[in-house]
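Request: How about a record?
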Amino acid sequence: MKFYDREEQLEMLREMRELSYNGYSRLTVVTGRRRIGKTTLIKEAFQDEGYVYLFVGKKSESVLCREFCEEYREKTGIFVPPMSVFRDVFRFFMEEGKRRKYTLVFDEFQNFLEINPSIYSDIQNWWDKYQKDSHVNLVVSGSVYSLMEKIFKDRKEPLYGRQDSTIKLQAFPTSVLKQILKDYSPDYTNDDLLALYTFTGGIPKYVELLMDVKAVNCKKMIARICKEDSPLIEEGRKLLIQEFGRRYATYFSILQAISMGYNTQSSIEDYLGGKSLGGQLAKLEETYDLIRKVRPIWSKPKTQTVRYEISDIFLRFWFRYVEKNQRLVEIGQYQALQRIIEDDYQTYSGEVLERYFKLKLVESMEYKDIGGWWDPKGYTDKDGHHQQAELDIVALRLKENVLDIIEIKRNPDKFNKSLLEEKAAFFSSREKQARKNKIVLSCLSLEDM
């Protein structure tokens, strides 16, 4: 698959290179979850020069140093004396920056923690000593979000605050997914687009895996995912074990519970046998960036009306179908897994459609507030019946005093405008800020993607 998007990030990387070459050494940190395209981005940014790319494998320090020296010599043609400790290697790299301008990349930078944690102090030492007198465009990237955050944002760490620029890669926006599908299937349908978003979450590598085998519609995508050799079957487990290490069991259970609809702290704790999970939920949100709290729009930060959702669309899908049906995978019943996904797809993708439209509204940059709203107690309608009080999307426009209240339906024929009017009226009675704006009710469906 060709390179898509990332223009802003490419510009940032090249700007740091220019500052390094024309001023003094700069350090750029590139983070983002596994398969998000960090290495591809770096290679695209510096393809016009012979940069030095070093992968930090989980090997002994002496073996890794020998490999680094050999790679440096091959890329630059410069003699590198044999060295077996990293502090000597990095000092050599920085001293070379006094004689020449070049780009140096360390991929999977967090792996130094397993090799020798003191390496970060060695880097800090030589970086502080040589930065202002050298011209090294240093770029480090890492897939383990929690560790990369710790290395550069924990005040106790030696490299705290040393970065000059940080790039956190996100999934492809909806506009890019449309462009990719158009390139591979000019006659694609909106249901094909929703399927691509539902199964990949816009993660570049997952999109590439499907496009490369011409899986461009929902049926073909599901069939490709449910094959014995499909990388996506084990991808969720690999991603999370890489992040959690040996402590993954409870975190897996929490994510599984959320994927099944247990989305409040009390319901998750009940599902897991009454365990107290406040600490683990906080870590999943703040340290690992895998879940997020969702509150009704305009609610106070300390409100108890909180739901949890898995922030990563692919992981949400993986837990709902692959992890939940792991027994089928273990005995090779991939066709049975395929049928389960196909039978449930319309229901599940309808839920994902709401996330898609929220993302699309954010990308439009036409709104200053976007969220959902609900009241756990519900309301009583004019006929005395109890109704759920929930609005899919509430969005306040940026340049007008207009509040859009939007119902999301796969099929627009199922939209009940009078019911939405009732819910909107109840919402206005509860939210003073809503009454300050003109309210516009509408429905978004597959036809509007």
Notes: The radius of gyration is 25 Å. Residues 226 and 335 are 7 Å apart (CA to CA). Residues 7-168 form a domain with the Rossmann fold fold (CATH 3.40.50.300). The longest strand covers residues 367-380.
